[in-house]
Specification:
The protein has 176 residues and is of the alpha+beta class. It has a single domain, classed as Roll (Pnp Oxidase, Chain A). 22% of the residues lie in helices and 41% in strands. The protein has four helices and seven strands. The protein has a seven-stranded antiparallel beta sheet with strand order 2-1-5-6-7-4-3. The chain is globular, with a radius of gyration of 18 Å. The relative contact order is 0.24.
């Protein structure tokens, strides 16, 4: 990371960003074309640790869960290449400057970017587990889904391989 002072390395803070995010942006590889990016609901499951030899956090069984319709461009691209990039942000806020210079304005945020392998879940119990994690992530525990809905819904499991977390410099004085 170029601006090391902005890097978040505390594992409880990284887990909080994963847990507090509302949308995860997934980027799929497209042969000979620009990446295809889609915003998705998700759930986070796992822990994180820092690899002492790198400023990039190395995952320790971090899984992101997604749900999708059973057809579409992202599934077609997934079948071609399971390697995806992802991005999650929290605490996003416009920081209006007090002066008349454009550089007085900015954004407050915390974010995680990373990559991993995305897979379609086939096992019905694992699909149900993934969907329950998503429901739990959005505070809707206790909602039900039937067998027909489960069969029509694709559940995707992202095994995170690496990631990096940072916060904007405008949040630095507030954290501590």
């Amino acid at each position: 990371m170029r601006r090391e002072q902005l890097e978040i390395t505390e594992m409880h803070e990284i887990a909080r960003i994963f847990s507090d995010g509302l949308v995860c942006h997934l980027a799929f590889n497209c042969k000979g074309r620009a990446p295809y990016i889609v915003a998705m609901n998700y759930a986070y499951e796992g822990a994180a640790r820092t690899d002492a030899s790198s400023s990039i956090a190395a995952p320790q069984a971090i899984t992101l869960w997604f749900h999708s319709a059973d057809s579409g461009r992202k599934l077609d691209l997934l079948k071609e290449d399971p390697l995806v990039a992802f991005q999650i942000e929290t605490r996003v806020k416009l920081a209006k400057g007090s002066g008349l210079q454009a550089c007085d304005w900015g954004m407050e945020y915390e974010s995680i970017v990373g990559e991993g392998l995305l897979a379609m879940v086939r096992d019905p119990r694992e699909k149900q587990h993934g969907l329950l994690q998503i429901i739990k992530h959005y505070g809707a525990e206790g909602l039900a889904f039937g067998d027909v809905m489960l069969a029509k819904t694709e559940v995707l499991r992202l095994s995170v391989q690496e990631y990096a977390a940072k916060r904007s410099s405008r949040l630095m004085p507030q954290i501590g």
